[in-house]
Amino acid sequence: MWLFLGLLLHQPQHLSVYAAASLSDAFNEIADSLERRDPELKVDFNFAGSQVLELQLGQGAAADVFASADERWMQIARDSGFIEGTPQTFARNQLVVIVPRGNPARIGKLQDLARSGVKLVLAADAVPAGRYAREAIFRLAWSAGYPPDFSRRVLANVVSYEENVRSVASKVQLGEADAGFVYVSDVTPAVARQVRRFDLPDTANVIATYPIAVVRHATNSAAARAFIDFVLSPSGQAVLSKNRFLPGR
Amino acid sequence: MKPLVVRVALSAAVATLLCILALPMISLLVRLSPGELLHQLAQPVVLTALGLSLETSVATTMLVILLGLPVAYLLATKEFKGKRVLQTLVEIPIVLPPTVAGVGLLLAFGRAGLAGGALKALGIELPFTTLAVVVAQLFVATPFFISAATAGLAGIERRYTEAAATLGATPGYGFFRVLLPLALPSVLAGAAMSWARALGEFGATITFAGNLPGRTQTMPLAVYTALQDDLAAAVALSVLLVILSFTILLGLRFAPWGAAVGGALARPRRR
C-alpha cells in the first residue's frame, strides 16, 4: 500500500519527444544514455512521418521536443508558432535504393528501376523521404547515362506511397517490393542482412537535413533543452554517426 | 415512477455517450461549408477513391456472402468436433488490430509469404493490387456476416425444413426455398454490416495492399493521405464516409426486413 502510494507520488520526469520515423534507432539509444545518467528522467517518443508530427503539434499535442527530417516541416511548425527559439541542425542523411536480397526484379544498376514491371515503393509526397526520393529521381533523369523519360518510367513503377520511410524499408525487407528509396540510416544491421543497397551518385543525391527545436509551451522545457544539448554534444553525435547519420555540420 | 437519482444517472449516461459518439461526426459535418464540401468532393483524387471504395467493398460483400453462407449454415445447423474453435477463428478479426491482420496477410499471401509460391504458380501476385484490397476487406468484414447469418439460420425452427423434406424437397431446395427466405433478414443485415465494415477498412489495406491512387487507395486511405497536407480534402472525404456508413446502417433499420434482425441490430419490436 505505502509502496504503491510512494510510486504514485514519486513519478519520474517525463520528456515527450516528437521525432521523424527515421530517427527511431538513434534517438532510442540517446534516450537510454540520458536515462542512465538521470534516473529521474523518462523520455517518451512519438515517431512518425514529420508531416504527421507537425499536424499533431497543430492539434495541441503535448510535445516538448520536435525533430523533423526536413527543414520544410520545421519551418511550417515555426510559422504556425509551435516552436520556441531557433531550430538547430543536428544531423544529415542521404538516400539509397534498397532491393530485397533475393533481388526478384534483377536490379543490377539504378537504370533498371525504369524497366517496366519493377515494383517500386516510395514514401508519400508529404513525407520528407518521399519528396527527396522524387527529387533524386528527377536529378538522375538529368544525369548522363539515363534515358530522358527515366523519371516518368520510374514513377509509373510506383506501387505504393507509404506513410513513412520505415514502412518503405519493411516492404522491401519482406521481399514484397522490388525496390525502395530509403535513407542510408534506415539500412540498420537487421535490414542490411535482408537487402542489397545501391548508392546514388553524388550529383543526384539529396542531402536531408534534420532540425531540432523546443516546442513552445513545452511542459518540460529545461529537460527539452538538455535533450537537444545532448543530441548536439560529441556523445550524441557519436550515437547518430553510429546509426549511419552524417554530422549536422 | 423511478426515483429521481436513477433518472438523473440514466440521462447523464445517455448524454455522455451521445456526446462521445455524435460530436465527432457533427464536427466533421459542420467543418466545411456546403460549397467548399462540393468543391472538395469534385477533386479527381476523391472521385477515384470513392469509385475504388465502392467497387472493392461491393465485390467483398458478394464474396463474403458466397463464402460465408456455407460456413454460417454449418455453424447454425450442424454439431461437430472443433465447432467452437471454428467459431472463434471466424470471430477473431473483429478484435484483431487491422494492422496485425495486414502483416499476417503479407506473411501469408505476400509473394515471399507462406502461400506466396503457390499463388505465384497460379500467376497471382497479391500485394499492391486491387485484389489485395478485397482480400484485406474480406478478412476484417466476414465475421460480421457470419455471426448475423448464423444467428438468423439457427433461429429458424427445424420443423419448416423437416416439413419440406417430408414433402419430398431435396436438401438444396429446403435450404434455398425454405430456410434461406426465412432467415433472409438476418443474412441481409449481416451483408450490410460487412459492407459498411469493408468500406471503412484501413489498417489491413494499407499494410497488405499499399497506398496507390486508383489501384489500392480506398477512401479511408485517401483520408489519411490527405490529412497530411490537405485538411479540407480529408474532412470532405470523411464526411462522405460518415454519410455512406450512416445511410447503410440506417437503411438496415428501416428496410422492410429490418424488423426481424436479431441482436444488436434489432429495431424495437412492438408487442
Mean pLDDT of chain B: 88
The main sheet of chain A comes to: 10 strands, mixed
The SSE string of chain B, one letter per element, is HHHHHHHHHHHH
Shape of chain B: globular
Q: Largest contact between protein chains?
A: A-B, 24 and 19 residues
Radius of gyration of chain B: 22 Å
Fraction of residues of chain A in helices?
A: 25-40%
Could you name the ranges of chain A where pLDDT drops below 50 across 5 or more consecutive residues?
A: none
Multimerization state: heterodimer
The Cα radius of gyration of chain A reads: 20 Å
Task: Determine the N-to-C terminus distance of chain A.
Answer: 53 Å
Count of separate DSSP helical elements of chain B: 12
**Average pLDDT over all residues of chain A:** 91
Helix-and-strand structural type of chain B = mainly alpha
What is the number of E strands of chain B? 0
* Estimated helix fraction of chain B: over 70%
The tally of helices of chain A reads 10
- What is the succession of H and E elements of chain A? HEHEHEHEEHHEHEHEEHHE
Structural class of chain A: alpha/beta
- How is the biggest beta sheet of chain B arranged? none
Strand % of chain A is 25-35%
Describe the structure.
The complex is a heterodimer of chains A (249) and B (271). By secondary structure, chain A is of the alpha/beta class. In chain A, 39% of the residues lie in helices and 27% in strands. Chain A has helices at residues 2-9, 24-37, 50-58, 71-79, 128-142, 150-156, 165-173, 189-194, 221-232, 234-242; strands spanning 13-20, 41-48, 65-67, 83-100, 120-123, 158-162, 179-183, 195-199, 207-215, 246-247. In chain A, strands 1, 2, 3, 4, 5, 6, 7, 8, 9 and 10 form a ten-stranded mixed sheet that branches. In chain A, helix 2 packs antiparallel against helix 10 and helix 3 packs parallel to helix 4. With 271 residues, chain B is mostly helical. Chain B is 75% helix and 0% strand. Chain B contains twelve helices and no strands. Chain B has helices spanning 4-31, 34-41, 44-77, 83-95, 98-109, 116-121, 130-154, 158-166, 171-199, 203-208, 219-227, 231-254. In chain B, helix 1 packs across helix 12 and helix 3 packs parallel to helix 7. The longest helix of chain B has 34 residues, at 44-77. Mean pLDDT of chain B is 88; it is low at 259-271. Classes of the chains: A alpha/beta (249), B mainly alpha (271).
